Design the sequence.
C-alpha cells in the first residue's frame, strides 16, 4: 500500500461521492482537508520545564514533523503564569504528512483506545472537527516504558467545507469512526 493511498482515494472515490451527495457542479466546490493541527496544552509545565521538552519529542515522533512550543500571551497571577512562558506544544500538518498521519490515526491509533465505540460527531459550525485524545500512548511511536506522565491532546481537522454537514460527510468518507446515533 503506497503512502498516498488516502489522497488517491480522496480524488478517485470521495470527490465523486460528495459531488453526487451534495450536487456540486464543479470539483472545486467539493470540500477538502486543508490541514490537521495537533495541540497539547501543558499547564503542568509551569512547575516542571522538562515536560515541554518531552512533549516536543513525543509530538515530533507521532507526526514526523518538528513540534513547536506555544507560549503564554500575558501574565495570569492566579495560575502562576508569566508572559512568554512555555505552556504547550503544537504541530500543523499539511499535504503528504497530513494524509500519512490521518491514515495512521484511523487504522492504528484509534482502534488502540480502550473500550472504543467511535468518536463524537459534533463539528464547530464551519465544517471543522476537533478530536480530544486523553492519552498519547495510543500512538505506536510512543514507547510506554519511557513515559513519565500521561498527556492528552487535541487533533483539529480543518476542512474547506462551508457547513457542518459537508465537513462531516468528508471526514466520514475518509473513514473516521463516528458513533452511530
Sequence:
Amino acid at each position: 500500500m503506497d503512502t498516498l493511498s488516502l489522497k488517491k482515494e480522496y480524488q478517485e472515490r470521495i470527490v465523486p461521492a460528495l459531488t453526487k451527495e451534495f450536487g456540486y457542479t464543479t470539483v472545486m466546490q467539493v470540500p477538502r482537508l486543508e490541514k490537521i493541527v495537533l495541540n497539547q496544552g501543558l499547564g503542568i509545565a509551569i512547575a516542571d520545564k522538562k515536560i515541554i521538552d518531552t512533549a516536543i519529542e513525543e509530538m515530533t515522533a507521532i507526526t514526523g514533523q518538528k513540534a513547536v512550543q506555544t507560549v503564554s500571551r500575558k501574565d495570569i497571577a492566579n495560575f502562576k503564569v508569566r508572559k512568554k512562558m512555555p505552556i504547550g506544544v503544537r504541530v500543523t500538518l499539511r499535504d503528504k504528512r497530513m494524509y500519512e498521519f490521518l491514515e495512521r490515526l484511523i487504522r492504528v491509533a484509534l482502534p488502540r483506545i480502550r473500550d472504543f465505540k467511535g468518536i463524537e460527531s459534533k463539528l464547530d459550525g464551519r465544517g471543522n472537527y476537533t478530536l480530544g485524545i486523553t492519552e498519547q500512548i495510543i500512538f505506536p511511536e510512543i514507547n510506554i516504558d519511557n513515559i513519565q506522565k500521561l498527556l492528552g491532546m487535541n487533533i483539529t481537522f480543518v476542512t474547506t467545507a462551508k457547513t457542518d454537514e459537508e465537513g462531516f460527510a468528508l471526514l466520514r468518507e475518509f473513514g473516521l469512526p463516528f458513533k452511530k446515533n
